[in-house]
Amino acid sequence: MIDFHYAPTPNGWKVAIMLEECGLDYDLKPVRLHEGDQFAPDFLAISPNAKMPAILDHAPAEGFGDAPVPVFESAAILLYLAEKTGRFAPPEADRLARKDLMEWLFWQTGSQGPMGGQLSHYRNYAPEAERDYGFRRYLGEYERTMAVLENRLKDRDHILGEAYSIADMQAFPWAFIAKPLGSSLDRFPNVAEWRERLKSRPAVRRAIDLMKDGQNRGEGKRTVDNDSGTFNQNADRLLAIGRGEA
Ligand SMILES: N[C@@H](CCC(=O)N[C@@H](CS)C(=O)NCC(=O)O)C(=O)O
To answer: Which residues does the UniProt record annotate as the domain GST N-terminal (predicted)?
Structure first.
């Protein structure tokens, strides 16, 4: 059994998609980000970055030892699960395809994800008075990454080519929410088609519907202006936790 520490956000969906695609049994452990669950010692032991998604695999594959295996960072989790199941990643022996896979996982982790995340913050949650420059800056950066994806998907159905893989699962959620981010896929038709292709997969739909009612949006949306407990990660807090003071 796999404990799946999850909140219904694009980063959470990446792992939900893989678990659903593989039909793996998982025990859903909701992380209530506005309640500060990400700072609980038990959670930090699994995810020292104090962010979800994270997993705890109680039945790891041979070679991982006897204790349950914790994994944090979405791309690392997807790779771990791909290796565990032998699915949705090119085989180790295909060195070139493996290299491609690593490139696109790192690209998402280092470029598309952080730009989308900051765009989301400025568009949806930043103090009203301070939104403008941050929004424009990250919209441009996010759309730049969409252009990279657009070019990659020219003449390809999926990021690695023919085969659907964890590289697609990693990048899809941030393209899926282009509109709520204040962007649009109109200029990126290859991305728009790929998004539809993935969205039509039953496993992807189950994943993006997981705990849908718990999404931070609509009426009652928590923002920096109305909720001091949300979006409140900082160095002081983590250092205090490290000293055992919090
Ligand atoms: N690079 C990380 C990003 C994870 C991340 O940013 N998670 C957010 C939710 S989408 C989180 O847990 N935020 C809690 C907080 O900032 O307090 C990954 O891909 O796993």
So the answer is: 1-89
Structure tokens at 112: 């598309």
Q: What is the pLDDT of residues 170-218, one digit of tens each?
A: 999 999 999 999 999 999 999 999 999 999 999 999 999 999 999 999 8
Regarding pTM above 0.85, the answer is: yes
Structure tokens at 113: 């994800």
Q: Give the separation between CA 53 and CA 74, rounded to whole angstroms.
A: 6
- Taking the CA of residue 74 as reference, the ligand 1 atom at the shortest distance is 20
79-126 confidence digits (pLDDT tens): 999 999 999 999 999 999 999 999 999 999 999 999 999 999 999 999
Does the Cβ of 73 fall within 6 Å of ligand 1?
yes
What are the chain's domains?
Answer: 2-89+223-242 (3.40.30.10), 95-207 (1.20.1050.10)
Cα–Cα distance for residue pair 44/42, rounded to 1 Å: 6
CB 142 within 8 A of CB 182: no
Contact 158, 74 (CB under 8 A): no
Give the three-state DSSP class for 69.
strand
